[in-house]
Amino acid sequence: MRKYFDTIQRIAGNVVTVSADDVAYDHLATISSARGDSLAQVIRLEESLVSLQVFAGSQGVSNNDRVRFLHKPMQVPFSENLLGRVFDGSMRPRDGRGPVNGEPLDIGSPVVNPVRRRMPDEMVETGIPMIDIFNSLVESQKLPIFSVAGEPYNELLARVGLQANADIIILGGMGLRHDDYLKFRQTFEEGGVLGRAIMFVHTAADPVVECLLVPDLCLAVGEKFALQGKRVLVLLTDMTAFSDALKEIAIIMEQIPSNRGYPGDLYTQLARRYEKAVDFDEAGSMTLLACVTMPGDDVTHPVPDNTGYITEGQFYLRNGRIEPFGSLSRLKQQVNGKTRDDHRAIMDSCIQLYALCRESREKRDMGFEMSDWDRKLLRFGTMFEERIMDLSLNLPLFDALDRCWKILAECFDPAETGIRRAIIEKHWPVPLS
Fold first, then answer.
1. What is the pTM of this model?
2. Do both 329 and 352 map to the same domain?
3. Which structural domain, as residue segments, surrounds residue 408?
4. Which of 4, 80, 327, 350 reaches 20 to 30 Å from 417, CA-CA?
């Protein structure tokens, strides 16, 4: 027997408040109105009052409409047929094909017990030297890309998805412009990876509630594939849009605002998603790379600030490049000692020399006299930016390391690199006298 509730107390924005009993947080409901049935989700319980977030918006909903609770959370049908598909935040197909049927998975489930997680020790090669050499991405790692509006962070994510050695790529787009969505899809199609990719895309024109569902859809599907032994890479953009959606709902709910108007549980909401990254023992892994735009390039903004406490490092994207100073992968030591014996030596030497190059550029710009050493550093800096820092590059790790050796050999004598002689004798591109 179906039980309906028709005592709608309040309608504010996309939130409807109704008097009801026997209801649980995050459960779904349908609201029957003149425009048909609308799906909603429980977002607040306060004694007998239940607040529902209406997916398609509350336009057309009236106080006389009836509410029926489904007594289950939002679910995503899991199947191999998800691969190659594009959906919105409510699991409606965006690619003109039919819906997918499969095993229903609850979204927003708890994170894996840390005791049951395997210690990360496998590298995820991306083909981008500034990541693979200097801040290696590790399986099950959670890393944000801190950027500002106008930087090519979506292009960087697309290249990582295209080039990374992962079995399955899952893209979660939040607040995307339509042309950004099309660019992701075109990149994956032309690169031949769409057949092993799944896209959940919320555009700026879609309902706010769907923005909040996108990360949970991605992570629920990714976790299930990881349990089947797959290496899953989840790409999320943009977590600031996700946080702004949280703020919008919190304002409608008249919650007491915290820093800059964001809800007080912002840290918890972000951690529930980031901590889903996991490496299962005797199964697969799920690695998470998320874009976080910083309004005004302010790293103390609540979203990047809270993100930095949760994640294991960060990439800074500035002037179309991954900034070598400030970017950090805290797990890179787990893998870059196992790749090749010169990996750490190249990493340390190139960054030290590039830092000295910046000092020489300041001297040049201020009109000081340049020494031969300064000129060597300036030449190295230019070659390093063009041949290594360019994000359009697609180089296997060993080829990228060899290219670094060639740049060092063109600019410096072996003793000037600061690399141990045993490593130099083995890898220097020309025979030593």
1. 0.91
2. no
3. 343-427
4. 327
Alpha carbon distance 407, 80 (integer Å): 45
Q: Do residue 228 and residue 178 come from a single domain?
A: yes
- β-pairing, 285-293 vs 142-147, is parallel
Domain closes at, from 49, 73, 97:
73
Report in angstroms the alpha-carbon separations of 14 from 217, 262, 363. 21, 18, 58
Residue 157 near residue 172, CB atoms below 8 Å:
no
Number of independent structural domains in the chain = 3
Q: Which two tokens stand for residue 388?
A: 């290594």
- pLDDT at site 81: 93
> What are the φ/ψ torsions at residue 298 (nearest 5 degrees)?
-100, 105
CA 250 vs CA 17, 31, 246: distances in Å: 14, 21, 6
In a domain, 432, yes or no: no
Q: Among 6, 23, 1, which Cα is nearest to 67's?
A: 6
Question: How do 15-19 and 49-54 pair as beta strands?
Answer: antiparallel
Query: How would DSSP label each residue in 53-78?
Result: EETT-STT--TT-EEEEEEEE-EEEE
Shared domain check, 252 and 160: yes
Segment-wise mean pLDDT, segments of 10 residues, the chain, 433 residues: 74 86 86 80 87 81 85 90 92 90 88 83 93 94 93 93 94 93 92 93 87 93 94 95 91 80 91 93 92 92 94 93 92 90 94 95 91 95 94 92 95 92 89 58
Contact indicator for 143, 327 with CB cutoff of 8 Å:
no
**185 Cβ neighbours under 8 A, 6+ residues apart:** 86, 194, 199
- The DSSP output letter for 229 is T
Q: Which two tokens stand for residue 177?
A: 């412009």
